[in-house]
Amino acid sequence: MVDLTTDYLGLKLANPLVPSASPLSRDVDSARRLEDAGASALVMYSLFEEKIEAEEHQMERFFYNQSIGHGESDSFHPMPDNIQTYQEQYLEHLQQLKSTLAIPVIASLNGTSLSGWVEYGKQLQQAGADALELNIYHLAANSDESGDAVEQRYLDILQELKGQVSVPIVMKLSSQFSSPIHFAKRLEAAGADGIALFNRFYQPDIDLETLEVVPKLELSSSAEALLRIRWTALLYGRTKLSLAVTGGFHQTPDVLKALLAGADVVHLCSVLLKHGTGRLSEILAEMEQWLAEHEYESVNQLKGSVSQQHAIDPSAYERANYVQVLDSYSSPAGVLR
């Protein structure tokens, strides 16, 4: 029998399949179904500091700033003592997941201020989170902000929070850093326990009728997995950080390639939203079957065996095949060129 266990952030997991932050964790029953399907841990949907702030401002305007022409207006709308805030609901749900599930629960935090990252990170630890995933959704659109300043923003958040919590911290990174391996080493030196490659920044669209910029959510596809696999292969052996991949992992071959490249865990999201929680158990069974057929005794034996350090042709992960790939393409039959 193949040993599927893997180590991630110091946690011993039953297998490498971990559902990432998604609506599936908003419901205790769906979270339980993920566990029953074989999920070895669960990343909870994100706690957003901006939603906390927006709710606070809305409550303040509603209860204290109404201009209705009466000095007694506050008495018309007394502050209810049974309203549960967005933040309280999140923390309570985290506690419910912890009391219901036997697998580790990783809380995802999306902050906007340094004080917010620290304060809410502490609260998530107090509520029982086994680890924290920092979802730093920062678009470097300021022409006066250098690349080094962008990196320093991440490092400042990490160092401040690391000084206040004891649970492992994983940094969810975008693919747009100029030197990902160097930055990963800086994060490791600053105290990070792991990194997740890569965050998917949703792209706005333009409505051709109204000429408005509108939000657009597109689920991932397997084509996106290759970028994550490549950088995992380049990072493996060059850092002691735990390595997670996220974005584009839909099929069993996607998962196996990520493990061969050196990933400790593979996050699943879009595939579960598209096909249901049962798809996780199918991927897990197919993965175990492939390992057995190829005479692997464990996931650890597989892990990193086709990273850049162990690949037959290490240069294949860099520029070596660039020209060959371009020259290899030909249009489908019948297409005039």
From TrEMBL:
Cite a GO CC annotation.
cytoplasm
UniProtKB keywords: Flavoprotein, FMN, Oxidoreductase, Pyrimidine biosynthesis
- Part of which pathway? Pyrimidine metabolism; UMP biosynthesis via de novo pathway
Signal sequence coordinates: none
Q: Quote the InterPro entries the UniProt record gives.
A: Aldolase_TIM, DHO_dehydrogenase, Dihydroorotate_DH_1_2, Dihydroorotate_DH_cat
One example of a Gene Ontology biological process annotation = 'de novo' pyrimidine nucleobase biosynthetic process
Q: In the record, what terms sit under GO molecular function?
A: dihydroorotate dehydrogenase activity
Name assigned to this protein: Dihydroorotate dehydrogenase (Fumarate)
Q: Look up and give the organism this protein is from.
A: Methylobacter tundripaludum
